[in-house]
Each structure stands twice: as structure tokens, then as C-alpha cells.
Write a structure and sequence with these properties.
0% strand; binds zinc ion; NADP; 301 residues; elongated
């Protein structure tokens, strides 16, 4: 609970006028106990998980012929029942994990030194913290993902996530409950190392989820970010990891590709891309657009 009852008290304490966002935060949080300020995380992530993939899912279901040129594996068409089963299963498992986490979120946030008061963080502070969180998350997630591809890890846990050899966005959360628990650690490591405001934490979880939905989308859209951000993997990078499946020794990184580059786990993917490029060159305009976008040229890993 904030120590100010009115905007005047808050402005006197800060020595300046409140921004509109700070005034809104004051109105929202002034009478809410701190422990409940962490609870919107679950609602935000569920809303993002439900709504963000919807446009592409509906496009894929309603107009498969129009969607095919943009799909990474255009020959695979998931029926509506698969979308629904994936969504319901993922929500069930995530509630199983996130639900109990809500009960310990407040003491965990206290230990991590997550603040809830004023001032709100600036845009620069938020961007700097998100950059750190993405880099920390990427490194830890890469190694945990590699562990999940050991014989034991794959057979006991990770094979569930790999049921989708041609993923779609809702498959981002589809997996064994233990995998959700394990991969929550890298997401919390950044904020534990570099504490932030609780609103930054909301943005971080939403941004990380959007990124996960994107890499599982199964679509390679013309405006994809990998064209503009160095070492950004994008959907094509992770789609290949699912396409290869349990035997994959390629593309473990979730967001950026620097770990795959440093540790040499991008060799199969590079070979595959080079083969596709050569085929395209040889066949010229005869190469199907699907083969150009997708993974129909033979598995190499
Ligand atoms: Zn995997
Ligand atoms: Zn995946």
C-alpha cells in the first residue's frame, strides 16, 4: 500500500507533479495491499495467451489456402479440435503452476526486492531492465532446454512439448507441468538479479509470452523482426527445432541465437538453410513457395 493518500501528498514527497501514469497508479494502488498488486500477472498472461494468437489461428483455420504461403510448414493443417485441445490443456497446466505461484508471489517479490511504490520507472529504465531479462533468460533457458533434450529429460518431460512437430502459437505453453516449472526459473532470474517495479514485471511476463507465442506461431510473416534485430531467431529458428523433434541438436535458444552460435548448435539448421537455398537456385522459379518458406527439404541434424 502506498504511503500517500492523495496526489498532493505524493507530489510533495516526489518534489514534482505526477505523470498521468503515476496518477493512475496512485488511484489503483493507494488502497490495495501490496500482496494483491502481484496478482494481475496471472490475468495479464492468460489474456495475452488467449487473445494474441487468435488472429493468425483464425486466419489459418478460416482461409488455409491464403495462409499457406506464409506458413513454415504449409503441408500441415491442424484441425480446430487440435487448437482447442492444445489451448485447454495448456491453460489447465499453467493454472496448476501459476495458481500456487500466486500464493508465494508476494514473499518471493519481497525477497527479489520488487517495488510497488512511486515513482514509476521511466521508459529508459524499463527498456534497460527488459534487455537484461531477455539476455539472462535466453542463456539459462538455452542450457535448461539442452538438459531437457537428454534421454531422461526428453522421455520424462520434454516430449510433451514436442508433440507438435509443426507448432502453432498456442503450443507455446503446451508441455509437461514440470517443464513449465523448470522454465519459470530463467524468467524469474533476471528480475531477481536486477530488481524492478511490479509494473515492469507485468510487462516482462507479457513480453516474454508474446515472444514465445511468436516463435511457435508457425508463420513467417513479411514484417518479422529477425530482419532487423541482430541474433534474433524468430519463428523460423524455433520451428526448425520442433520439425526435427526429439533427435534435435539444433536451435535450443528461445529468443536470440547467440548461444546456438557460440556453442555450435546451429550447424544442422545452417546446413538445412544452405541446402534449401541451393535447391532454390537450381530450380529457379520452379521451387514451390512452400518449400522456400518451410521445412520440406529433408531433415538434417
Ligand atoms: Zn526442445
Ligand atoms: Zn517450443
Amino acid at each position: 500500500m502506498l504511503p500517500y493518500a492523495t496526489a498532493g501528498e505524493a507530489e510533495a514527497a516526489l518534489g514534482r507533479a505526477l505523470t498521468w501514469a503515476e496518477a493512475a497508479w496512485l488511484r489503483y494502488s493507494a488502497s490495495v495491499p501490496d500482496r494483491y498488486l502481484h496478482w494481475p500477472n496471472i490475468a495479464i498472461t492468460l489474456v495475452v495467451y488467449t487473445l494474441a494468437p487468435l488472429p493468425l489461428a483464425l486466419f489459418d483455420l478460416a482461409a488455409p489456402a491464403a495462409a499457406a504461403p506464409y506458413k513454415l510448414q504449409p503441408k500441415v493443417q491442424h484441425p480446430p479440435a487440435t487448437f482447442f485441445r492444445c489451448y485447454m490443456d495448456a491453460v489447465r497446466v499453467s493454472l496448476l503452476i501459476i495458481g500456487p505461484y500466486q500464493l508465494i508471489s508476494y514473499p518471493a517479490a519481497k525477497i527479489m526486492d520488487i517495488r510497488t511504490g512511486l515513482p514509476l520507472p521511466s521508459m529508459g529504465e524499463i527498456m534497460a531492465q527488459l534487455t537484461v531479462y531477455f539476455l539472462v533468460e535466453d542463456y539459462l533457458n538455452y542450457w535448461l532446454h539442452r538438459l531437457l533434450h537428454t534421454k531422461w529429460g526428453y522421455e520424462k518431460i520434454h516430449h510433451v512439448h514436442h508433440e507438435f512437430t509443426a507448432p502453432m502459437a498456442y503450443a507455446a505453453w503446451y508441455g509437461h507441468w514440470a517443464e513449465m516449472l523448470i522454465l519459470a526459473v530463467p524468467s524469474l532470474a533476471g528480475p531477481a538479479l536486477v530488481p524492478c517495479h511490479v509494473t515492469t514485471l507485468w510487462i516482462w511476463f507479457a513480453a516474454r509470452l508474446v515472444e514465445s507465442l511468436n516463435i511457435h506461431s508457425g508463420f513467417k510473416l513479411p514484417f518479422n523482426a529477425e530482419k532487423y534485430i541482430p541474433f534474433y531467431g524468430g519463428a523460423e529458428h524455433h520451428d526448425y527445432h520442433h520439425y526435427i523433434g526429439g533427435q534435435s541438436k539444433s536451435n535450443f535458444a528461445p529468443v536470440f541465437t547467440y548461444c546456438d552460435y557460440i556453442y555450435g548448435t546451429d550447424k544442422g539448421y545452417k546446413y538445412h538453410k544452405a541446402t534449401l537455398a541451393k535447391l532454390k537456385e537450381l530450380a529457379g522459379s520452379d521451387v514451390q513457395k512452400g518449400a522456400d518458406n518451410g521445412f520440406n527439404g529433408g531433415k538434417q541434424d
